[in-house]
Amino acid sequence: MHRKPRMSRRAFWATAAATLVAAGGVAAGTAIAGGEPSPRRRAGEGELRGMWLATVVNRDWPSKSGLTAAEQRAELLAHLDTAVDRRLNAVIFQVRPSADALWPSPYEPWSQYLTGTQGKDPGWDPLGTAVEEAHARGLELHAWFNPYRVAVHADPSRLVASHPARQSPDWVVPYGGKLYYNPGIPAVRAFVEKAMLDAVRRYAVDAVHFDDYFYPYPVAGQVFDDDAAFDRYGASFPNRAAWRRDNIDRLVRETAAQIKAIRPGTQFGISPFGVWRNAATDELGSDTRAGVQTYDDLHADTRKWVQENWIDYIVPQLYWNIGFSAADYAKLVPWWAETARGSGTRLYIGEALYKAGDPAQPAAWQDPAELSAHLTLARDFPEARGHVFFSAKEVGLDKIGAMARVVADHYQRPAEPPRRRNRG
User: Fold this and answer.
1) The domain spanning residue 133 has which CATH number?
2) Are 18 and 356 in contact (CB under 8 A)?
3) pTM value?
4) Cα distance between residue 216 and residue 393, in whole Å
C-alpha cells in the first residue's frame, strides 16, 4: 500500500491559514485581536501554542486506567483533534510520569496509568502513535518526562518486582508520602538520562520536556535524606544546597548534550515553577513574595539555564492572575522577558487554564477574560514567543469559556511554531 506523501509542517500551516482566509474566517492581513504582532512575529519566526497532556494519576489521559487499547487510542486522538480545533500547534505529552513508560522501554515498566497494573503491556504504543498522529495533524509532539519521581506513594513493595527502584533500593528516598530517585547519586542520573533518552532514539519527538519537579517541593517537618550521598559526593562543595544545584545542573547539561548527539533536530525545554528567587532574597530576583523559590527549594537554577543557553526553551509556570499580590503575572512576565533577552533561549509562558472557573480560586479566575488578558499583556514583550495551557482536559471542557475567549481574541489564524535552532 502506498501512502500519500506527508505534507511538511510549514506547508501544513500555510495551507491551513489560506483555507481559513478563503472560508471567511479572517481577512488576509488582518491583525490578530489583542494588538499588533510583535516585531519578532512579523518576522515570521512563529508562535508556540501548546497544551500539556498529563497522564500521572490519569489526570487528562487515559480518562481511567484499564480501558481497552482501542478506547485509549480514541481518547488520545480526540485530545489531538481538540488541539487542532483550538488552533494550537504543540502538545506536550507526559510519557514518563513516575519512573515508568508510555512506550515499550527496555529500562522501565509500562505505566500503571494505562492498564491499572504497572508493567502490563497495554497492547499498543501510545508514544509512537502520538508522534505519528500529531505530525499528521500539523502538531509538534513534545515528550514530557519527570526525571526523579518514582511513585506517588511511599511503599516500594507496590512497585513491580522488576522495577529499577526495587533492584537498587539505595537509589530511592521516601519523602512527603512519595518515592524519589536521589539526584545526588551519579548512577541514578546516568540511569534516568538513559531511560528518558531511549524515547528520543526511537521516535522523532519534536522536543524533550521536563516539568517543575527536580528536588521535591518542601514538606513541612520532613527532611529529604541524602546524607550518605552528600558525604560521598559533596565534599568539594561549600554546602549541601550548592551540591544539590550542581546535581541538577549536571542533569540539564548532560541531557542537552545527549539529545544533540542522538537526534540533533530535537529541542530541549523545561517548565519550572514561575519564581526563580524573590527580590527580597536576591536583588536579581522578581518582585514577588512567593513561598517557594526554585533556586533555594527545588535546587533548580532556572535563570542560569536560560542565560547559559543550555536549553532551547523555558516555560515558567506563571499560574497567577494579573494583580495577585504575592506573585503578579504582570510583574513576572517582564522579569522572565528580561532574563531571556539575548540568551538564545526562547520564552513561552505557562498558563493556568485549570484555574478558570474554579470556585476555590480568586475572583479574577471567575472572569473568562482573565487568560486572554494574559496574552494581551505578553504581546508587549517580544521575548514571549508563545503560551502553553494546563491542561488538555480543560482545553476541551473549557468550563467558563476562557479558552474560547483566547482563541477568539488571539488565535484567529493558525500559526506555525517557532523555528528550531541549534544550541552551541
Assistant:
1) 3.20.20.80
2) no
3) 0.90
4) 25
